[in-house]
Task: inverse folding
């Protein structure tokens, strides 16, 4: 019998992130508490740039964006937001969306699988994703449940379950 397998990836759907950003921009333009503070949110290359005239207002812009990401099904672990910084008369926050599993995180996940998952399960690091395989599908499902229960720094998706 052939081995069953699945891949562990960390990817953000660019269209969903774009939709969340557009919804946040619309809410910011319509909300009363954002009137007259120059609040805005937009793409700046691969990063999201949030601006406002006060530090607490730019943090509120970030909160609105986070709420929209959650509604669109994007984990906040994929959002890498910096601290507010002054730029002229306004405050800014730059946030990036993490794609792919960094090699240190991949090694941590692989170690968790080696130490705590059923013994038939094997994990291989393949670039920015992990391939997990076993002869027993139940062991693979137990491994998925194990990883979902762990508090990791990356947003994980489980794909290509065969």
Result:
């Amino acid at each position: 019998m052939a081995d069953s397998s699945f891949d562990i990836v960390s990817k953000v759907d660019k269209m969903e992130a774009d939709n969340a950003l557009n919804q946040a921009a619309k809410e910011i333009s319509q909300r009363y508490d954002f009137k007259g503070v120059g609040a805005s949110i937009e793409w700046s290359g691969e990063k999201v740039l949030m601006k406002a005239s006060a530090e607490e207002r730019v943090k509120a812009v970030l909160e609105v964006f986070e709420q929209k990401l959650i509604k669109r099904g994007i984990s906040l672990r994929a959002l890498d937001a910096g601290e507010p910084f002054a730029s002229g008369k306004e405050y800014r926050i730059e946030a990036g969306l993490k794609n792919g599993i960094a090699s240190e995180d991949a090694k941590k996940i692989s170690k968790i699988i080696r130490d705590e998952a059923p013994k038939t399960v094997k994990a291989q690091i393949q670039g920015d994703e992990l391939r997990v395989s076993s002869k027993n599908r139940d062991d693979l499902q137990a491994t998925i449940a194990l990883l979902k229960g762990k508090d990791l720094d990356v947003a994980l998706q489980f794909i290509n379950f065969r």
Remarks:
- The chain has a mean pLDDT of 90.
- The chain has two domains: 4-11+101-159, 14-97.
